[in-house]
Amino acid sequence: MASFLIREHRVVDRPFLRAMLEAAALTTYPELSALGRLTRADRLDEIFNFHYTHREKRIWVAQSGEAPIGMVWIQPGRHPVTEEPDYMVLNIAVVPEWRRRGVARALLEAAQAFARAEGTHRLRLFVGAENTAAYALYRELGFVEQTREMLWRF
């Protein structure tokens, strides 16, 4: 198995992080191409810049050689219903050629270890309904499904 390391993000990772946001968003929200008031790039820039300026964000990057190959981004918050403190996984992404090689697992384990060390006992995330590989990984790492988002369009 090829080797990689997990490290804290650096400012030079910003373009990679933005590209990973776009890749994840287009898979989950394909209608972003027809927003109306903003272009897709403008809306994703708006989202990225809002979250990137968050003081307490934590981002880890998986790297092989000099190339970033994956990332996980978490931010502290509270569950919207129970108000329990948690960390929300804003994005986890791995470049296609590195998928199914343990990168996402290592990234999530880094996030879990950080949350545990901070005394926060919850990590929360959303996953696309069709992303069965991600569901399987999350279950293996101890995540349990709590809700399902349903959408009706007319």
List the helices and strands and how they pair.
Layout: E1 5-8, H1 14-28, H2 40-52, E2 58-64, E3 67-78, E4 85-94, H3 103-117, E5 123-124, H4 132-140
Parallel strand pairs: 4-5
Antiparallel strand pairs: 1-2, 2-3, 3-4
Helix pairs in contact: 1-2
Detailed description of the structure:
The chain has helices at 14-28, 40-52, 103-117, 132-140; strands at residues 5-8, 58-64, 67-78, 85-94, 123-124. The protein is an alpha+beta fold and 154 residues long. A 5-stranded mixed beta sheet has the order 1-2-3-4-5. A hairpin with a 6-residue loop joins strand 3 (67-78) and strand 4 (85-94). Helix 1 (14-28) crosses helix 2.
Summarize the structure.
The chain is α+β, with helices and mostly antiparallel strands. Helix content is about 35%, strand content about 25%.
Give structural attributes.
alpha+beta; 5-stranded mixed beta sheet; 4 helices; 34% helix; globular
